[in-house]
Amino acid sequence: MIWAEQRDYRLLDVSLEVLQKARDLSQLYEGRVSAVLIGENCGPLAEELVEYGASRVFAAEDSRLRLYQSEAYAKVLARILEDVKPEIVLIGGTTIGMDLAPAVAARLRTGLTAHCVDLYVEKIGDRDQLVQVVPGWGGNMMIRIICPEQRPQMVTVRPGVMEKGERKPGEKGEIYFLEPELSEDDFRARAIEFVREQQGEKSLDDAEIIVSGGFGLYSAGGFGLVEELAGALGGEFAGTRPAFDEGWIPESRMIGQSGKTVKPKLFFSIGASGAVHYTTGFQKSRVIVAIDKNPKAPIFSIADLGIVGDVKKIVPVIIEKLKKDRPS
Q1: Per-residue pLDDT for 187 more than 70?
Q2: Which of 195-199, 224-228, 298-302 has the lowest mean pLDDT?
Q3: CB 262 within 8 A of CB 255
Q4: Whether 151 contacts 129, CB under 8 Å
Q5: What is the Cα–Cα distance from 324 to 228, expressed in whole angstroms?
Q6: How many degrees, rounded to 5, is the angle at CA 188 between CA 177 and CA 85?
Q7: Closest of 160, 269, 162, 259 to residue 209, by C-alpha
Q8: Fewer beta carbons within 10 Å, N or C terminal of the chain?
């Protein structure tokens, strides 16, 4: 079962990503995939989930649930899970998903693994177990986690690390509309409205070219070279956690485990060693180019093209060449 997050009557991409992953896993368990929607006027979105492969959709509708309400959503989702008793529950690791998932897991007295970047089933002992993979130990290795006894097995999945399935218009499935029993006590803390930050800023989600910089740019005097190269390529700039900590980029442009996951056609990494918590944010890019002075930097193990050297010397040459070859 998945929880399908919606905002402004639109399904988030991560909901469709975890739905496809649930379909893949269900084949190994010889089961079926259900989805839970919570909000108001859920009918069109429930039909969309069916067309993306959900066998069943449970739509809990209440006008008070149009916006995310922490306690009320946790109560509704936990009750549905108690009734249906799924083997696995997948939730998108958005800001809201990361609030909802632990609240539901606590109600069900089961385990929860957060920030998963991969999921697969493996026979451990005499039982098929869901192996939940997360970056660990400062991002230097991948950790495999299982929940051997308690059910359901619950995880949150980072947006962008899974692939969406194909929508098949006209696909049939079961849709159940529920009227949740809620009291005013379930709304002691109430969400009144959502306000979008940084209006007008271009998103990294759909960028075809991204240039990302790390702390190695400190000796180069900051982030200017990254922004200039991104401009010369017609792309967007981004950075690592240390780049954010230095104040070079806003949080919305941070790549990695604590930031965004992107899949551009071309990803430039400049002055970043390539710890796992960073590379999980872009490892599915079509082409990865890395520039770093350390020839043994982990970034070169995933790069399609690696350049070893001083970024202060290499990047200006690339920028100059791009500007010279640009049609006038």
Answers
A1: yes
A2: 195-199
A3: yes
A4: no
A5: 14
A6: 40
A7: 269
A8: C
The C-alpha atoms of residue 253 and residue 251 are separated, in whole angstroms, by 5
On whether the CB atoms of residues 240 and 215 are closer than 8 A, the answer is: yes
Sketch out the chain's domains with CATH numbers: 2-187 (3.40.50.620), 209-325 (3.40.50.1220)
Query: Distance between CA 101 and CA 84 in Å, rounded?
Result: 17
At 93-133, the pLDDT tens digits run 888 999 999 999 999 999 898 888 888 888 887 778 888 88
Cis preceding-peptide flag for 298 (omega within 30 of 0): no
Comparing CA positions, the residue from 106, 93, 100, 35 lying closest to residue 74 is: 100
Residue 92 in tokens: 């998108």
Q: CB neighbours (10 Å) of residue 240?
A: 30
Contact criterion met (CB below 8 Å) for 274 and 295:
no
Tell me how crowded residue 233 is: count the other CB atoms within 10 A of its CB.
18
The count of residues in the chain is 328
**3-state SS, residue 221:** coil
User: pLDDT over 90 for what percent of the chain?
Assistant: 34
* DSSP output for 128-157: EEEEEEEEETTTTEEEEE---SSSSEEEEE
Q: How many helices (H) and strands (E) does the chain have?
A: 8, 17
Instruction: Report DSSP state, residue 312.
Output: H
Q: Residue type for 129, please?
A: Q
Q: Output the six-digit token pair for 197.
A: 């930050």
Tokens of residue 78, six digits: 């936990």
User: Coil, strand, or helix at residue 181?
Assistant: coil
Q: Tell the residue number behind the tokens 């299982």, with chain if given.
A: 146
Residue 292's Cα: distance from chain center in Å? 27
Check whether the bond before 152 is cis (ω within 30° of 0).
yes
Q: Is 298 helix (H, G, I), strand (E, B) or coil?
A: helix
Closest CA to 29 of 3, 11, 55, 62: 55
